Amino acid sequence: FSVNSEPSLRMCPPGANPLVQPCGFGDIGSEGRIVEFQHRVDYVIQGFSGSIDAQFNMDVPLVDLGDGSDDGAWSSAGGAVGIVDSSGTIGGNTDLFSKAAQNDLAALVRINTGYNCGLVEADDCVPIFKSLDTTAVKAANGGSLPDIAFIAVSNNTGQEMRQLAADGARLEMVIDVTNGGQLDVKVPCGTLPGTSSEVVIVGAHHDTVYHSPGAVDDTSGTASVLEMARQIAKIAETEGTPERTLRFCTWGGEEEGLFGSKAYVQANGQVLASNLRLYINLDMN
């Protein structure tokens, strides 16, 4: 999953002149206006989103799906952009994206109504990046990932979009992403051998999400792992070999689905089952 270009999300309540193209140059000069939402502030792309190029002149509807529990609302949103309330969990994203695929939506907008509310912005629930379970979504879509654009918006942005749509505003939504191909995930580990086969592992993920403070999540954990390894190696030089083998690892692909650590466990499962005594995970520590 990679974002190829800066996305665009805008809405345009048409002006009063019926003789010009709605949301065109002449319309904007006749009381029409454009409301532009800011990427990484008002909205963020979700994991495994598809692409869309919906322009004002295409008049793609924005359909209100409420809290997502009304199957009739979903079925009425085929070919449209749906907007739905959600607190923002991986399970929630999986269910919503699966429903969007089953009902042939062109795009899905998830309003963050219940995660980190009031913590980052006093009067808002800021948008967050979440991935989803690709296996479940593929099963719901006949075996492949759907090419459906998927974004999360802040609560304030979502309510503004709903009101604009109710007032007849048109939507422009442009997202260009790639879900094809493969990307390598790195899992570097350094080992300080002990006198026994028992193992203690300290780990942290070295990837982050594109709109977050990566210095915290999780460069802080990665830096801690590296410094612990450095300090313990110095101690071992003077105090001798530790009783247990100490291993220091950092994981790639954590944010998209724990891919690095899962691959490590799959490759070393038998040894870990026999010898692992403690795993310490440092995430935003």
Q: What is the makeup of the main sheet? A: 5 strands, mixed
Low-confidence stretches: none
Strand order, sheet with most strands = 4-9-8-7-6
Query: What's the tally of helices?
Result: 7
CATH class of the largest domain: Alpha Beta
Q: What gap, in angstroms, lies between the N and C termini?
A: 27 Å
Helix content: 25-40%
Strand content: 15-25%
Count of discrete structural domains: 2
Total strand segments: 15
Q: What fold name goes in the CATH topology slot of the largest domain? A: Glucose Oxidase, domain 1
The SSE string, one letter per element, is: EEHEEEEHEHEHEHEEEEHEHE
Oligomer: single chain
Shape: elongated
The overall pLDDT, averaged over residues, is: 91
Structure notes:
With 285 residues, this protein is α/β, with parallel strands linked by helices. The protein has 2 domains: 2-178, Glucose Oxidase, domain 1, CATH 3.50.30.30; 189-281, no CATH class. It contains 7 helices and 15 strands. The protein has helices spanning 25-28, 71-75, 90-102, 134-140, 155-166, 215-239, 259-275, and strands at residues 2-3, 8-12, 35-37, 43-45, 52-54, 62-64, 81-86, 107-112, 149-153, 170-175, 177-178, 189-192, 199-205, 245-251, 276-281. The strands form 4 sheets. A 5-stranded mixed β-sheet has the order 4-9-8-7-6, with helices on both faces. Strand 13 (199-205), helix 6 (215-239) and strand 14 form a beta-alpha-beta unit. Helix 3 runs parallel beside helix 4 (134-140). The protein starts with a strand and ends with a strand.
Quick take:
The chain has 285 residues and is α/β, with parallel strands linked by helices.
